[in-house]
Amino acid sequence: MTDLAALKREARRKGTPPERLLELARMGPELAREVARSDNTLPDILARLVNIQPDDLPTLQKVAANKRTPAQTLTELAAHPQAEVVWWAAGNPATPLACLEALTEHPAPKVRSWLVSNPVMPLSVLVRWQHEFPHLTYQALKTLVEYGEGAEFSAEELTRALILTDLIPAPAALRLLPFPEFHRTLLQNADKIAASVRPQILAQLQGETP
């Protein structure tokens, strides 16, 4: 009798030879999913899984979500007819930026929701959608409050939070961010700005729910 649990562990195990991973994936979708979700799977194997289990949505979803999946494969999955596959590619930071920007026109709201959660999405897109996805503003407020309580965030993260809460007017910031001197000054002073507005932010959070 085949020990499925043991085969699944083998599919996820670091050091399992690529040829064996392909063999396991061909045994059925359950094992293909394990190969697809593993951080140990090589990019070439992830790309080949799409052709080995082309009709198994969970396998395709896990390939689309894996940060080791090649850019070309992610681009192909982002064009998949099933939105359930597309949104995983939309949330993957390894998906090419040009592909992510093209997905901003996707009709499925959940695809857009995953796009705004992708840390590499351009700020211009987030600003455009912050009213459609109120959690963007809420999370930005939360970032600034947590920063004031000792949590560590990069200057880039603080700057994004300040713009998404309109503490720095978005239209002006988007116009000026491409200029290196403005960008540098903003990053250097993001922590001071965040600290200075923390009382107002905290009052907003105490009166609002996400």
Description:
The protein is built from 15 helices and no strands. The chain has 210 residues and is mainly alpha-helical. The mean pLDDT is 84. α3 packs parallel to α5 (57-65) and α5 (57-65) packs parallel to α7. It has 2 domains: 4-109, no CATH class; 135-207, no CATH class.
The parts where pLDDT drops under 50 for at least 5 residues are none
Question: How do the helices and strands follow one another from N- to C-terminus?
Answer: HHHHHHHHHHHHHHH
**Largest sheet, if any?**
none
Helix fraction bin: 55-70%
User: Counting H and I runs of at least 4 residues, what is the number of helices?
Assistant: 15
Tags for this model:
210 residues; mainly alpha; single chain
Produce the secondary structure layout.
Blueprint: H1 4-12, H2 18-27, H3 29-37, H4 43-52, H5 57-65, H6 71-78, H7 83-90, H8 97-103, H9 109-117, H10 123-129, H11 135-148, H12 155-164, H13 170-176, H14 180-196, H15 198-207
Helix pairs in contact: 1-3, 2-3, 2-4, 3-5, 5-7, 6-7, 7-9, 11-12, 11-15, 12-14
Organism: Deinococcus wulumuqiensis
Protein name: HEAT repeat domain-containing protein
In short:
InterPro entries: ARM-like. Helices cover 69% and strands 0% of the residues. The protein has 210 residues and is an all-alpha fold.
